[in-house]
Amino acid sequence: xxxxxxxxxxxxxxxxxxxxxxxxxxxxxxxxxxxxxxxxxxxxxxxxxxxxxxxxxxxxxxxxxxxxxxxxxxxxxxxxxxxxxxxxxxxxxxxxxxxxxxxxxxxxxxxxxxxxxxxxxxxxxxxxxxxxxxxxxxxxxxxxxxxxxxxxxxxxxxxxxxxxxxxxxxxxxxxxxxxxxxxxxxxxxxxxxxxxxxxxxxxxxxxxxxxxxxxxxxxxxxxxxxxxxxxxxxxxxxxxxxxxxxxxxxxxxxxxxxxxxxxxxxxxxxxxxxxxxxxxxxxxxxxxxxxxxxxxxxxxxxxxxxxxxxxxxxxxxxxxxxxxxxxxxxxxxxxxxxxxxxxxxxxxxxxxxxxxxxxxxxxxxxxxxxxxxxxxxxxxxxxxxxxxxxxxxxxxxxxxxxxxxxxxxx
Length: 410
Known about the structure:
Membrane topology: Multi-pass membrane protein
Number of helices: 19
Number of strands: 0
Main location: membrane
Order of helices and strands: HHHHHHHHHHHHHHHHHHH
Family: Belongs to the nucleobase:cation symporter-2 (NCS2) (TC 2.A.40) family.
Subcellular location: Membrane
Transmembrane segments: 7-24, 30-51, 63-81, 146-169, 229-250, 256-275, 287-305, 340-360
């Protein structure tokens, strides 16, 4: 017997889609700073991922599977050649002036400097200054501090991330032909995300940890859903993280190329969010109105809040200024901390999308099939099925320590 769920595809779809669409200001506005590099980056990704996706080399569709790394490598090499060919060296405007605190740049040189900073691969000196090996440790940047107004914002963001993760869990289970995750598996997974976020805070990463929805698309493209592949990839990343020269080498990627990659990645994120609607009745006028209203208000309401944040004298990049709403906004109570929390929360696209979709979907009448509610198995039933235990059981027999608690077991 299934239980009524309040988080379902009609809620997940606009919430996840708004996460990808919210960063449109960081897309072509950054790519346009160096179009001779940014546009080839986007075109290369489109060419590999769409036009050459069925082309095989030695029986493998390498262009479909490796569209992102291939596009990055080619454009990165192209940018390196332009830098070494001194295409971005201008008469009377030396790139070394940027590192000289006493140098005064002329207005003409300032314009050229902006181009050089966006196009060159030697903007960062991390490769030459980074150590070969560096081992991170807890509290390396000092003891974390606590401010309740930022904690409230982070808790709201965590709820949105959890909604995103729920959609990713179910989409992944469908791709690997497994049963949808049970209540306990979802609860356990979100709890582990919280644990890794705590560890990230101890190590001072500056951001929490959550499920990367784009990896669902990776599973669909590569047809690789093996745990061993994920474990191997994780080990490679851990080893790479302690080799400083690898990080320094990656830092040579121009910001324009990064923006071009993110245009592609955020596009997939938005598409993956909307594809969640396939579990519900997509032609239902109820669902169409809820999803459409959620997406529209997720841009319209934050736009109203973000107009208070524009500051021409701000040192923040233009693409990030709209999110600097905390200290100034329509909420103007006697409590500055409350103002910060409310102005920040309501300026976030994904928060508005989630709130509107959540309220409407759980108050507007609709059948279970129309809403796309998942039929989840009971924990006790799943516990007796070898296929479910194999797919969702923890390594090293750790599942037995969770199964006795129904809401985090199988």
